[in-house]
Amino acid sequence: xxxxxxxxxxxxxxxxxxxxxxxxxxxxxxxxxxxxxxxxxxxxxxxxxxxxxxxxxxxxxxxxxxxxxxxxxxxxxxxxxxxxxxxxxxxxxxxxxxxxxxxxxxxxxxxxxxxxxxxxxxxxxxxxxxxxxxxxxxxxxxxxxxxxxxxxxxxxxxxxxxxxxxxxxxxxxxxxxxxxxxxxxxxxxxxxxxxxxxxxxxxxxxxxxxxxxxxxxxxxxxxxxxxxxxxxxxxxxxxxxxxxxxxxxxxxxxxxxxxxxxxxxxxxxxxxxxxxxxxxxxxxxxxxxxxxxxxxxxxxxxxxxxxxxxxxxxxxxxxxxxxxxxxxxxxxxxxxxxxxxxxxxxxxxxxxxxxxxxxxxxxxxxxxxxxxxxxxxxxxxxxxxxxxxxxxxxxxxxxxxxxxxxxxxxxxxxxxxxxxxxxxxxxxxx
Length: 430
Known about the structure:
Strand content: 15-25%
Strand order of the largest sheet: 2-1-5-4-3
Distance between the termini: 67 Å
Structural class: alpha+beta
CATH class of the largest domain: Alpha Beta
Order of helices and strands: HHHEEHHEEEHHEHEEHEEHEE
């Protein structure tokens, strides 16, 4: 342990010694030689004569100075050579280390000149693209790019060639030795102005398996979308069949109350059928556009309840970009159907004129639907929770399903306001 410690200390001292500047080294040598000459001559003087001989000390100092003047430069030169050798050895080891990293890397490292000709390629090109090491040197990289991507990549190359140290990452198709195309992710950096590199360095990684997996996943998504659309189509047809049967049954009855009950039920079924029809027609099979859906519902309700001489104006204020997930639309559609149907049935008796206002707003993570009319209003003691009407019970139940709150007032007609939390939609088309 002591020997190792001394060896380490000696090595550090010598390393510091050979890194001194020349004037420092000569000064230290001069001082050290003078001290040694003075000490040795003083010892010799005492041993021979028993006293200090000034002349001997003087002569010894002059001899030491001459030795430093003669041998000092040689020692300085030797120290500088040792320093250069150490630096060269370290640079060589560092170069060998990084070359070892590059030559054994899984990615391909390529260096291009300013015209796209290959100056260097790492040995990994053999495993990835089947070319022998060195075979591609001197060839132009653009001769091996897919024709569909050639112009696009050449444009990027020309744009980046004038920007020192600029970088870019692109996905390309590169021609393999066997004639097939390899999908590569290539990251390039412009080091043309770097004297050591003098080129454009590319790092290429094979992403063929990733591309193949992405293609398979895209196919599966498309197949799933087609399957879901087919399901929506069949569900829509089933709802329409039920709606048609209710319509036929109502047309065969003479009792107006029973006809009204069947028509109400038919509108409820039709509101669900419209959802599935819109999902079938849309590229997005999980979300529905609110404005389009409400417009379709209004058209259907007007056909069912509007009397020819009744003049009702509808103010429809729904943003065009509002999209909600299907699970919210099912509940919201039934609520909207009941609210608007009740307005047409009860708000404007005796063919009165009226205005219906429909608003939808979003604020602080909440959705707010407001349906209002300027009709006769609700009874003074109206309580939606105590109502025996199936439609109002349905409104209350669907509001709870939305985790929402339904409120009403009858100051100037009737206003229902439904607030419920926003739910993140899912873009199935991506």
